[in-house]
UniProtKB/TrEMBL annotation:
Cofactor: FAD
Key words of the record: FAD, Flavoprotein
InterPro entries per the UniProt record, alphabetical: BaiN-like, BaiN-like_dom_sf, FAD/NAD-bd_sf, RsdA/BaiN/AoA(So)-like_dom, RsdA/BaiN/AoA(So)_Rossmann
Protein name: NAD(P)/FAD-dependent oxidoreductase
Keyword Ubl conjugation: no
Domain RsdA/BaiN/AoA(So)-like Rossmann fold-like: 6-391
UniProt xrefs under Pfam families: HI0933_like (PF03486), HI0933_like_1st (PF22780)
SUPFAM superfamilies given in the database record: FAD/NAD(P)-binding domain, HI0933 insert domain-like
Regions that span the bilayer: none
Domain RsdA/BaiN/AoA(So)-like insert: 189-338
Amino acid sequence: MSETWDVVVLGAGAAGLMTALAAGRRGRRVLVVDHANKVGKKILMSGGGHCNFTNTGTTAAQYLSANPHFCKSALARYTPQDFIDLVDAHGIAWHEKELGQLFCDGASRQIVRLLLDEADGVGAQVRAHCSVQMPRRVDGGFRLDTTLGTLECASLVVATGGLSIPSMGASGFGYEIARSFGHALVPTRAGLVPLTLSGKHQERLADLSGVALDVEAGCNGASFRNRMLITHRGLSGPAILQISSYWQPGDDLRLDLLPGRDAAAWLKAQQVERPGTELKNVLAEVMPRRFAQRLCEVWLPNRPMRQFSPAHLQDTAALLQAWPLVASGTEGYRTAEVTLGGVDTREVSSRTLESQRTPGLYFVGEVLDVTGWLGGYNFQWAWASGVAAGAAA
């Protein structure tokens, strides 16, 4: 038995559901299928269960891509305020946490419900637990063999996401589809992911697991000021997750342990005010005591402030503002929030998200080589790319 649709969307996550409701508003007959047992799994677990659904400061500058201008068109045409208006229309209470990050006051499932209600309102159908074979090109569109039977459609939208968090159903299926239609891929790797340490670097910090402090992490010209969390395997926390997208093994990674301060001037002032106080106790007033103590056991001399010469004080300041972090790797896709790389956007229309190789084939969301920072940016890309594709598919 064969079913015919105007649009079939592969993937019932943020980008796929947004595409469906945008296409449905145009009167298109839309079917969304997903191999998982329920839809919107990443939405449900995001933001600690409160869904960081957008960021008010969204610009193209918060996205990584081999083709950095690609995301501008879609982001300009569907803004954070557009999605906020949708959230408000559904009576969902929300709050701003920090740095423009917006979260639901209640549970993430409110956002999934919003998307499903909107899709239902325009007649789009959503079906979970549906496995799909590799789509084939046929006259007038595409044919897909699925566990629901054979589907035919004029427009096919790939919204299958990346490789992040395979325990929630992530797979490389979208990349396989892209390849089968002749698309190039930008190499993928885990992004927004904890970093791992090994050898002496891990030994020096492992027993501090659970200690958190404010840092500014810098690598390859990017820097982020936020919290760092020491784990039993390495480092996590927002500052580390952010910089992980810019770091690869062997890259120089530095942490400013006194962010927002002029370390040299501050140490000189401490030397004048507290000449008899040891360095570890001075540092313990601006960072966790256990971390300050470890710094002074391994990286810095611990002695009364009066015993530091101007040169030693300068060296101490330099290390505190550019503490070298030698990471060995990342925790990988298992815990990564996003996948860097993906379908090469140079073969996709930035206006419609349509393949420039295969008319009627669209790519949206994380499957593309567009990756946002931590803090709601990846959801905003999902909404914006979904609306752009849905307006054309």
